[in-house]
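Chain A, query sequence.
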Amino acid sequence: MPRSKLIYLIVTLMFFILLAYLGIRTLEHEVLLRQYQTQTLARTQTASVAAGIENLLQQKASRLHAISDFIDPQNFTALKTLKEHDSDITAVFTLRKNQLLYPDERQPLSNEDKEWVRQLTPLANDPSQLVSHIAHNEQETPQAGWFITSENQEPLLIYWRQKGDTVIGFRLSYVQLMMDIANNVQVSPEEQQIVRVSESGRQIFQNKQAVLNHLTPLDSRTLDYPLTLWQISVYGVKTPLYHIWLWGSALILLLLTAVALLGYSLWREYTRAARQARQQVDFVSQVSHELKTPLTNITLYAELLREGLEDDQTQELRYIDVITQEGQRLSRLIQNILTFTRAPKLHLQKVNISRLIAEIVHIFTPALQAKGMAIHLSCPEEIILQSDRDVITQVISNFISNAEKYAAQGKRVDILVQTTSEQVEIAVRDYGPGITEKEMKMIFHPFYRVKSSITEGVSGTGIGLTIASQLAERLQGKIQVTAENPGVRFTLTLPQG
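Chain A, predicted structure.
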């Protein structure tokens, strides 16, 4: 399997795994969110109902407290009338120093009053029971509150108040309390949850008819004193979460399928483009190779023809020189194309940099002098480097050739070779018009040429510096370009060793 295809499959598989993992985590989060919302709603319902019941009980306590302000504990007729005209009050008592003042056992009593006296007897014997359930310190004694006890399975709910040395108490109608609570419980009708209020298992209120055995308990709460036997429960249908997993898994699968198709489509397009580019490169390389043979023959026969001409045939000699020069230029162009399309193999050997640069300068001297340019070389003796001679020659030749083409007006080219313990620097500086900082970033791009009056009419392909940069990287080196005043400097940096 090709390496690129293997990498593509691994990356695609990792992406699928990551996408599936994120999808599953999202589904889990959605499930937990649904459960949390259900639980939160149930707690809200419980708290709301409990607050309503406690508020109603507090209202009754405030009302009874206000009644005790305006009634005289010694006015037994008023106490008896209060019981007959107030639906909340089923009985009244007054107590002073462990003695029951009303109902008065010394007076004739009805059976109902006798039963009420019997129920009050334990409380009259020990009035501290009224405050025993209330947390208080030794300095403060409650002056009013609720008291509840069970008598014959019917709770006895009393609100009492201390007035001077007398305690006045009202027995609250338990039935009326349950009716009032059932009528005042507020439950949102839009909610699907079942709210149930019960007392020792006896139902007091339920907002909807339902079989609770088929429902799931979501929350429950026991009320504070005096209604400690009361419980608020919230039930609901357990949210079916399978459909979240079902639709979520289907969506994830659909997304993975779409990504797979997109990835496959991109892979096909990439391989098609790569195949087409490879075919183009192979075609250019093949054509270039095919052109080299007839071009070599043309150049060879032009040189032979020149040798056969007489010195006085100046016009013919000029034509032959043009043919030879254009043939050489076309040969260099073909060689650049071959270098650009295929990375050349390196032939590493010990290279005398000093001698090699001197040879390159010697080759270019006639052409530079023909344009009125002087070339100056500054190079230490015997710089030996393990490198590729031909690659260095091609890079430095490109620098000098560019100076010849575009900086002839500077009339000078400087070549400076410097060495350190780690690297060797070969710099070529011209004294031409130079290039801008923006163009410095572009000149190494393939087929880019600086547009100016200097470059107009000068032949070139725009790949010379691109090839030079690639060759420098092959040698583990680099090319730097810096602006000078005037001109520009190209520096080839190669590592020592």
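Residues 439 and 450 are 7 Å apart (CA to CA). The first helix runs from residue 3 to 70.
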